[in-house]
Write a structure and sequence with these properties.
By secondary structure, the protein is of the alpha/beta class. The chain folds into three domains: 2-59 and 117-199 and 301-378, FAD/NAD(P)-binding domain (3-Layer(bba) Sandwich); 203-299, 2-Layer Sandwich (D-Amino Acid Oxidase, Chain A, domain 2), CATH 3.30.9.90; 395-445, no CATH class. The chain has helices spanning 18-27, 63-72, 76-83, 117-129, 183-189, 268-275, 280-285, 334-352, 359-382, 395-411, 415-425, 437-445, 459-465, and strands at 2-3, 10-14, 33-37, 60-62, 86-90, 94-98, 101-102, 110-114, 134-137, 140-147, 152-159, 166-169, 172-175, 197-200, 205-212, 223-226, 237-243, 248-255, 289-290, 295-297, 302-305, 317-319, 325-326.
């Protein structure tokens, strides 16, 4: 049984989460029909779904991703704000302990959008699906591609509850199905070689819990982030507190092998107070009201498929989002990379045209740029933990990390360098801005202001949170 593409040009997107919805929006300006294939039933309002367990953990959308999303969906930032999401300036409203000390709260250079994942997804989904060109096939899973090693012609899907397999014929198939993507296997089934892949697994597990902030701290409270210090030779333990909608805090605690948090709710505050490098998150939680059980996961491996390096690549197929590269969630870049990749999908189609020779390869090369930037940021620390890779850090890993470590130290007491660093971490600019002569000289000089002795919370913030 085959569904023929009517009208003339059909695109199929595998996966209805953040990446898939934004990809569908990018394609709607070029295809007559965009079909999103989703394993779950998508909720009509903000709410959990089985296929997105990571929604129970903290998420942030860096400004590089927020700007890309705004280009795809004009007004979406305002819609998120109206729904309750927070916009926090970076580094003005960030209290962070880095490897080399506390960062000062410099004037705004970039920003983050903070919301629960359910709210973020529901707001984006409603805007995307308002387009009559976009439709969803729910409770269905993709089981393979149709076509040859030179061109994909569609995708085979099957109802999750059982039933007949059918084929969705398509002029372009975009795999945005997440960490569980089977694209590599499907491509080899078409006769293509196995793509190069790299994994960096720090063995990290993370636990998250929702809290109601103290009444006076429910508006305007900063992000609090305690990062690990890999140089001490022990497990990497970290924690971050994000103020989201409805006066709530979502708190994620994490640790690598030998230092993982417990899934038990009675141990959550203790880990934050005693096992992190500073007890401030634990002290804040002692004065907040828990609203949920602890969500716990070990699915944190960094995995990248280098599809852009394949010697041959079939027409009419592209891979985006976590299906292309999945990052340790602690660094918070997955949402932003997905948005930037969807925008690049749109811009590549706009620049070259739907019928351009080698269009799929052009798309795959374009989306590798934000993926590569986030990949370097993610593995810069993770690759050094025992057992993260079979071969250990490469020479490039060691050189890059040594320089970044020096930059982060300099950023604790140099506002100009802090801005350059956040240019990159926000995915607003490429890593090349960190290699200019003036930045390299500043890194050699080091911080211009003395190291802070404790978290730079203001007296008003301490009072609001009950710490005074």
């Amino acid at each position: 049984m085959t569904d023929r593409p009517t009208p003339a040009r059909t695109a199929v997107v595998l996966g209805g989460s953040h990446s898939g919805m934004l990809a569908a929006r990018a394609l709607a300006d070029f295809a007559d029909r965009v079909v999103v294939v989703e394993r779950d039933a998508l909720p009509a309002a903000p709410g959990p779904r089985k296929g997105l367990p990571q929604a129970r953990h903290a998420h942030m959308l860096w400004s590089g991703g927020a700007r890309a999303m705004e280009e795809l969906l004009p007004g979406i930032t305002g819609a998120l704000r109206e729904a309750g999401a927070n916009r926090l300036p970076v580094t003005t409203d960030v209290v962070a302990l880095g490897t080399r000390g506390w960062f000062r709260r410099w004037a705004e250079s970039h920003h983050v959008i903070l919301a629960g994942r359910d709210l973020l997804d529901a707001t984006v989904r409603a805007r995307v699906l308002a387009d009559p060109r976009i439709e969803v096939v729910e409770r269905a899973q993709a089981v393979g591609l149709t076509g040859t090693d030179t061109a994909v012609t569609g995708v085979r899907i099957r109802p999750r509850e059982g039933g007949l397999e059918r084929t969705l014929a398509a002029d372009l198939v975009v795999d945005a199905s997440g960490r569980g993507s089977r694209a590599a296997r499907w491509l080899t089934a078409l006769g293509l070689p196995l793509a190069e892949r790299r994994e960096v697994d720090a063995g990290l597990a993370y636990a998250s819990r929702l809290y109601l902030a103290p009444a006076a701290a429910r508006d305007g409270f900063p992000v609090v982030n305690i990062q690990p210090d890999r140089r001490d030779g022990g497990p990497g333990r970290a924690g971050f507190l994000l103020p989201i909608e409805e006066g709530r805090w979502i708190v994620t605690l994490c640790g690598t092998r030998g230092g993982r948090p417990s899934p038990e709710k009675d141990d959550f505050v203790r880990f934050a107070r005693e096992d992190l490098r500073h007890p401030v998150i634990g002290e804040l939680l002692e004065r907040a009201e828990p609203l949920s059980d602890v969500a716990f996961t070990r699915t944190t491996v960094n995995r990248r498929h280098f599809y852009e390096r394949m010697p041959v690549w079939p027409a009419n197929f592209a891979v985006l989002g976590d299906a292309l590269a999945a990052f340790n969630p602690v660094y918070g870049h997955g949402l932003a990379v997905a948005a930037q990749s969807a925008l690049l999908l749109r811009d590549t189609l706009r620049r070259h045209g739907w019928a351009a020779p080698g269009l799929s390869r052009l798309i795959q090369k374009a989306v590798s740029r934000p993926v590569g930037a986030a990949w370097d940021l993610a593995i810069g620390q993770d690759v050094f933990y025992p057992g993260a890779t079979e071969q250990g850090p490469t020479l490039r890993d060691r050189l890059v990390t040594a320089y970044v470590d020096r930059l982060m130290y300099t950023a604790t007491g140099n506002g100009r360098i802090a801005r350059r660093v956040t240019d990159v971490t926000s995915l607003e600019r490429g890593a090349g801005v960190l290699l200019t002569p003036s930045v390299m000289v500043a890194a050699a000089v080091g911080p211009l202001r003395p190291t802070l002795s404790g978290p730079p919370l203001t007296a008003e913030e301490r009072k609001a949170a009950g710490l005074l």
